Amino acid sequence: MGRLMSYTSVKLKAEKTIPENTYNWEIKDLNGKTHAFQENKGKVVFLNLWATWCKPCLKEMPDIQALYNDYSDKVSFMLVSEEESIKVKGFVSKKSYRLPFYLADDHMPEIFKSTTIPTTYIISKQGKIVMAENGAIDWNSEEVRRLLEKLIVE
């Protein structure tokens, strides 16, 4: 699938409720273990669609890592690439990121499909997309942290 890189952030329309069939989506971790999106039902989710060749994606990785360091026990982080396993594994082995990277197949749910990367969604425990962004932003900002704190206690 051809994708564009976005160097600037564009807010997408949020407050969509995730369709029930989205929870049937399966992705694999870098060890080849299959995970169902269903595992995240009832949790706050930080879903980032990215690629190893995408400079804006790489630019926001340190911010995502900082957020993950502080919220990994309360928020389900998913960094999903549609690239081949060998490319993503190669990237991860060269970097010091300790993030949950996953590989998606061609069956990405319609609600998450995007022609631009990075694309990031923050999803509430109730399954609503409360924040959606195309392009790199500072994910370690006070605004994002306040949003996560609010969603965690809801």
From TrEMBL:
<dbReference type="InterPro" id="IPR050553">
    <property type="entry name" value="Thioredoxin_ResA/DsbE_sf"/>
</dbReference>
<dbReference type="InterPro" id="IPR036249">
    <property type="entry name" value="Thioredoxin-like_sf"/>
</dbReference>
<dbReference type="InterPro" id="IPR013740">
    <property type="entry name" value="Redoxin"/>
</dbReference>
<dbReference type="Pfam" id="PF08534">
    <property type="entry name" value="Redoxin"/>
</dbReference>
<dbReference type="InterPro" id="IPR013766">
    <property type="entry name" value="Thioredoxin_domain"/>
</dbReference>
<protein>
    <submittedName>
        <fullName>TlpA family protein disulfide reductase</fullName>
    </submittedName>
</protein>
<feature type="domain" description="Thioredoxin">
    <location>
        <begin position="12"/>
        <end position="153"/>
    </location>
</feature>
<dbReference type="GO" id="GO:0016491">
    <property type="term" value="F:oxidoreductase activity"/>
</dbReference>
